[in-house]
Amino acid sequence: MKPDKALAVASCITILVVSVLSCTGVPATPAATPKPARPLASPPGSAAATSTPLSPKSSAPATTAPVATPKPNIGEPKYGGSVTRLRERYPDMLDPHLSRGDASWTDVLGPVYSSLLMFNENMEIVPDLVEKWEQPSDLQYVLHLRKGAKFHDNPAMKAREFTADDVKYNIERMGTNDPKFFRRYQFQVVSTIEIQDKYTVRVTLKEPTPPFVSFIAQPHNYIVGREAVERFGDLSRQEAGTGPFYLKSWTEKVSYKLAKNPDYFVKGVPYLDEVNVVIVPDPAARLASFRSGRADFILTSHTDLNALKRTNPKVTSSSLPSFSIVMVFHPDKKPVSDQRVRQALSLALDRQALIEIIMDGQAEIIGAVYGVAESWQLPQEELKRLYKPDIPRAQKLMTEAGYPNGFPLEVKVSSGRKDAMETVTVVAGQLRQMGVDIKQQILEHTTLIAQRNAADYVTLLHANTASIEPGEAIEQRWRAGGMYNLKDEELTRLIDEQRSEVDAAKRRQMLNQFERIMIDKAYVLFLYGYGEHLVRQSYIKGPGQPSVLGQHLVAYNWIEK
């Protein structure tokens, strides 16, 4: 359904959303508590903080690079009040190290936890729990920790201080051999962790790993409290963070209430008293709720943002490349186990037509390393050439594979992704000329993710979160034993080689070669990528928060009415 059609039914859904929000105890209008204003705290990446820009020009992180982001001219903050953020999906797991979810859960855990380093709104790596860092060699990193940072005051952690022992524990936990820690590859490159004193840690790697600083700044790789893990087994029901908010309460799969942490280590923040995260799966309902003022933040597409600004012209937004829409084939299941079939399906698709029909042209053709650092990707001209539709060749490949008349194809798609549901319908129309009869199976999102993780699918059409560091997505998804069940030794070798390449130009060549092989073997059809917009009401002040991160920049937002 086109966005304008969705808007036509929005008013009919508003009553439903109002009921959902009322049941969760969310206030109808977030009002700021009148308290004396204080000086504006420095957000991450301000002149007071050391930052490293994420750029392919220099693959190795600089030693405490003196790059600063100017303090935004956003006025004087006000304290108090609560805000409501609507999300389409609920968290699959509240333990950040175990979650296989994407940015949908980071509205909950992002403000609750802190990382050693983090990304600011300009995509620079800046201090968080690490005050500064040094890189004496390609293998060594020295982390100087903040003094006085405390875990939240709960029965397990009792507001104790964060120290070097916590760094060692978390890196070892995330780098375990236990397969349920599916991002463990990021920390299995660590050779030794030396505690030099209470606030200094030296980390030595087994081999040069240029993305390592990016890894420790990633969403998901938050610092958790050891005592809570030992007491509860994992953090699926109990948070143990040091962030600007703590998880006060939640109604599972419905809403999450975050309350201000009065002992947060950045003095003067957060400005807000509460952040309420409410799960509203229907995109039209989210849009209607925001338009009526029942919500303060939503994530939405470019087309919906344009429609929203026609009725609410004062809203503000921020965005980054956020999602890639992909069609993933299980490599061991017929008929898509045959490379000729996969190639034929790719050649039969007109990706630019998908972009025009579904995204009103506001998206781009992508490859396997689509993400924030866009210049790592193959050039658009080459991608368009490699993806040029070729129906005669596609039909020839189908005949050679033994399917001259096509076949039925089951495709699973998430009910929480309007973009994916619209895409599968258009894809079905394009592939019908090949005799391929797509049978859509629309699943609730967490069910889809569970079936993906269990390899219970033939074909998935869904959204992948765009990568922050260029090797991140390919490590998680396309290496042997990764998320999508590939066993391709050539691809795995390239993944391993690019990770340790310190020359940025050579690393880009490896990543480009990886993309070309992925396009040729067609294990996955990369359809298009786009930036999802974090939209906020005009009275929400402070820095914008890129939706792909979900980290705790909301601590620097306030209400001004």
As a whole number of angstroms, the C-alpha radius of gyration is: 23 Å
β-sheet strand percentage: 15-25%
The residue ranges in which pLDDT falls below 50 over 5 or more consecutive positions are 1-40, 46-73
Structural class: alpha+beta
- Helix proportion: 25-40%
Q: What is the first-to-last residue Cα distance?
A: 36 Å
Count the DSSP helices: 17
Per the principal axes of the C-alpha atoms, what is the gross shape? Answer: globular
Q: Main beta sheet: strand number and arrangement?
A: 10 strands, mixed
Spatial arrangement of strands, main beta sheet: 9-10-11-2-12-17-13-16-14-15
Average predicted confidence as pLDDT: 83
Q: How many β-strand stretches?
A: 19
Summary of the model, kept short:
The protein is of the alpha+beta class and 561 residues long. The protein contains 17 helices and 19 strands.
What does this structure look like?
The protein is an alpha+beta fold and 561 residues long. 29% of the residues lie in helices and 20% in strands. It is built from 17 helices and 19 strands. The strands form four sheets. The protein has a ten-stranded mixed beta sheet with strand order 9-10-11-2-12-17-13-16-14-15, sandwiched between helices. Strands 5-6-8-7 form a four-stranded antiparallel beta sheet, with helices on one face. Strands 1-4-3 form a three-stranded antiparallel beta sheet. The chain is globular, with a radius of gyration of 23 Å. The N terminus is likely disordered.
